[in-house]
TrEMBL record, chains A, B:
Organism: Sphingomonas endophytica
Residues annotated as domain Fumarylacetoacetase-like C-terminal: 81-318
Leader sequence residues: none
Domain (Fumarylacetoacetase N-terminal) ranges: 1-76
Superkingdom of source: Bacteria
GO molecular function, one term: catalytic activity
PANTHER family, A to Z: BLL6422 PROTEIN, FUMARYLACETOACETATE HYDROLASE
Protein name: 2-keto-4-pentenoate hydratase
Lineage: Bacteria, Pseudomonadati, Pseudomonadota, Alphaproteobacteria, Sphingomonadales
Amino acid sequence: MKLASLKHGRDGRLVVVSDDLAWYADAGHICATLQGALDDWERVAPDLAVLATDLRNEAIPRERFHEHDAAAPLPRAHQWLDGSAYVNHVALVRQARGAEMPESFWHDPLMYQGGSDGFLGPRDAIPLADESWGCDLEGEVVVVTGDVPPGATRDEALAAIRLVGLTNDVSLRHLIPAELAKGFGFVQSKPASAFSPVFVTPDALGDWWRDGKLHRRLMVDLNGAPFGRADAGVDMTFDFGTLVAHAAKTRALGAGTIVGSGTVSNRDADGGPGRPVAEGGVGYSCLAELRTVEAIRSGEPLTPFLKKGDTVRIWVEDDRHHSVFGAIEQVVG
Amino acid sequence: MKLASLKHGRDGRLVVVSDDLAWYADAGHICATLQGALDDWERVAPDLAVLATDLRNEAIPRERFHEHDAAAPLPRAHQWLDGSAYVNHVALVRQARGAEMPESFWHDPLMYQGGSDGFLGPRDAIPLADESWGCDLEGEVVVVTGDVPPGATRDEALAAIRLVGLTNDVSLRHLIPAELAKGFGFVQSKPASAFSPVFVTPDALGDWWRDGKLHRRLMVDLNGAPFGRADAGVDMTFDFGTLVAHAAKTRALGAGTIVGSGTVSNRDADGGPGRPVAEGGVGYSCLAELRTVEAIRSGEPLTPFLKKGDTVRIWVEDDRHHSVFGAIEQVVG
């Protein structure tokens, strides 16, 4: 089952979307919003599933689904927690800085609490008031949970995952060092993230969803050229069950909590830093990683951060190159 | 005007409360929830104000208001940002650790993004699975904003403040050092916060609300004994206008954003660390500060963190010793 929120008010209008993303059926008679559905999932999800089946069978009125009409599936949420599960990425960034990475980073997930009061839709521009802030994309996989009890195990956490999707976790790189030095995490350096047009139930992903990971390549294009093709199922040190359980160690997580993987990142085939797609590698899911590799190779980063007018595209394909979650496609403006 | 949410579902049931906190009138015919009212404040607030006047004049049906029936005014929110505006408190804690405080801390607010997916009501127990986590109270003032545009000035931020209230920002002190060392802020070390039974519009606070500060003493009792009597209007280095503008530097803040002051803390009359209430001082709004003072005086902290069965009470009084926001009164359980 694929769910989306068409732009409408602050919380969108819940629709069920066909598997090929071509059509939608209004779900308003079942539940007005996706948050409402997550709040009452046991009761609502079966009805939404029936609607999805009817849509597949063309048994109900349907409308054309246009990705640019979609808000973020949760246009605002009550919680957004982002991990750094691809520790390879963290190790690389540290290496470029000449900073040692604590060994504990391989066992204890890095995670920050992000702002969830207003997310960008998949085709919304990335607002950027000042290019000197060093605006970067971060291509990630996310999950949305139901209620998670405090102290949940990894298995309990996995069972609480309701939906899977993608995010562009926009980062202002030049504001990060000063904020992180204060120790209190990100506030100014993490403006609103954008999300894929649809979120998908794990069962609808079949074999691509296993071991708490999405086993597909995360496609990232920058200004129309292939930039990242890393496999989200590879080099993910902490699966989503582990990330959700980490977040729930001392407190319950409310239904509709979004948990992110952190920037997807694969090692190169030889175990070293990834190479650009143009050089036969799987590339990168953020500019910071490319700049890090450049710094390791040539002493300094060469690729600039995002400028006004740059375009970012993030998506995942099935075996026939059809989009699974729809595409995040944003212009910096 | 004083607003509360009676316990009901995930978002409570909006009521208007009398100035003396004795009575309430249901506001459901105007707006079902406080979040809904904040989403549409320009339209809804005048109607709520009329209801408050009618309640004052006993012109409408009213019911007894019991603080233990209240949820947090926003039982869940879309954003909770907590500052550390009483820099004196930060300086003290650092001094006890032997760590120097950067001079920038006097100009650049410390602020973290907290979890907002589920808050505790004012009389809810503080869930504590493990006493070794070092559970602490933190008595703070909070404001709730309307929509704040990105890059808002301090004056614009001040004008966007809709409500003022109190919080007990529960902290797990022994989990903090390891999380802060990672640089990504608090996740496990900040479980759900509790809020005062009512939030109050700034105009209803009269002269107590000025310069973006609440000029009243924050009363904190621990196990029935006076623990803190610090004036929230004193030694607050960053006022709420500055804190909100800090949060909005690179992004909009959605209506219903809660911004906290951080632990209220006053210097002693001689400029040194505050003394306990029993020694004629204004005491403390968290155990960590008392433990810090103990460490400075005698080489080690003496007072333990919260244990199961301990009670915490946080409130503010008017000149006749009547409660302004109602009391947060929690047992550790």
